[in-house]
Write a structure and sequence with these properties.
Strands 3, 6, 12, 13 and 14 form a 5-stranded mixed beta sheet that branches. By secondary structure, the protein is α+β, with helices and mostly antiparallel strands. The chain has 2 domains: 46 residues, no CATH class; 214 residues, Protocatechuate 3,4-Dioxygenase, subunit A (Sandwich), CATH 2.60.130. Helix 1 packs antiparallel against helix 2. Helices cover 26% and strands 20% of the residues. The protein starts with a strand and ends in a 5-residue tail after the last strand. The longest helix has 21 residues. The chain binds benzoic acid (BEZ) and fe (iii) ion.
């Protein structure tokens, strides 16, 4: 018996190790003639890592079955509104790792975070100072800031998409009807400024009534996301930024289920008691509201 390099702590006889390595070699070779070099690289690396995983944990056939069954259930629950595979990627930190690899730090450019499954195309356009709620429930939140490049130059006409859950923790798409609420897009003014009314973000669980929820429960993990407001911001010759802002003091900042929190994205949402005059003179009656500032810096395209 010798200790396998692939299986720390699990003794595997040398001839068995050789048989296992031979399978990996043959599969790698099967992709050797792939004429697309990138596809070849990705597939061979995937095979190396998958085989190494199986050998490291000495995966049993029952566990392999359970894995296939899990993925099958993820497929069955997925449709145009529910994407269980993105959720799986999110809770495994795969989404955030891909974001990290593809959004290298550039000067003081605003950091990116996970996209999530709730963005939809064709959100309504609002004027500067408009309201994204469209009937969604929640405390009003005044959001304002600027969009600049990394040289500090304002970006006029930058397109800003914003979307968020309502106070019950649901996105419009989760209601199963055709409503569009708590989402919109707007454009910065000639000095790169923007402002709008959103909803004060509240924490919510990622959808956890499917296989990913069962995985979280089985491993003692919470499905909760820290309160946040999503942004996607783009401008000419600038890298499109997909990010959120988080609420300082939120109880889930350190345990966000999809690992999306970055310190630079945690902002002060200042609560304003009912009756406090609003920035645009809007009359909110006896409702309290909040306000936050988020200045966005975009990296150059191609960085
Ligand atoms: C979201 O923030 O909307 C989200 C992100 C990842 C998984 C589920 C939801
Ligand atoms: Fe979200």
């Amino acid at each position: 018996m010798t200790d396998s390099l692939d299986t720390p702590g699990v003794p595997v006889p040398a001839d068995q190790q050789e048989r296992e390595a031979e399978i990996t070699r043959r599969v790698l070779e099967s992709f050797g003639d792939c004429t697309d070099p990138r596809l070849r690289q990705v597939m061979q690396a995937l095979v190396r890592h998958l085989h190494s995983f199986v050998r490291e944990v000495r995966l049993t056939e029952q566990e392999w079955d359970a894995g296939i069954e899990f993925l099958t259930r993820a497929g069955h629950i997925t449709d145009e509104r529910r994407q269980e595979f993105i959720l799986l990627s999110d809770v495994l930190g795969l989404s955030m790792q891909t974001v990290a690899v593809n959004n290298e730090a550039y000067g003081d450019a605003t950091e990116a975070t996970v996209f999530g499954p709730f963005f939809v195309e064709n959100s309504p356009e609002i004027e500067l100072g408009g309201d994204i709620a469209f009937g969604a429930a929640g405390d009003p939140c005044w959001v304002e800031g600027t969009v600049t490049d990394t040289a500090g130059k304002p970006v006029p006409g930058a397109r800003i998409e914003v979307w968020e859950a309502d106070e019950d923790g649901f996105y419009d798409t989760q209601y199963g009807d055709d409503r569009m609420a708590a989402r919109a897009h707007l454009f910065t003014d000639s000095e790169g400024r923007y402002r709008f009314w959103g909803l004060t973000p509240t924490p919510y669980p990622i959808p956890h009534d499917g296989p990913v929820g069962q995985l979280l429960a089985a491993t003692g993990r919470s499905p909760m996301r820290a309160s946040h407001l999503h942004f996607m911001v783009g401008g000419p010759a600038l890298r499109t930024l997909v990010t959120h802002i988080f609420v300082r003091g939120d109880e889930f900042l350190d345990s966000d289920s999809v690992f999306g929190v970055k310190e630079s994205l945690v902002k002060d949402f200042r609560t304003q008691p009912a009756g406090t005059p609003t920035p645009d003179g809007r009359d909110l009656g006896d409702r309290s509201w909040s306000r936050v500032r988020f200045d966005i810096v975009l990296a150059p395209d191609g960085t």
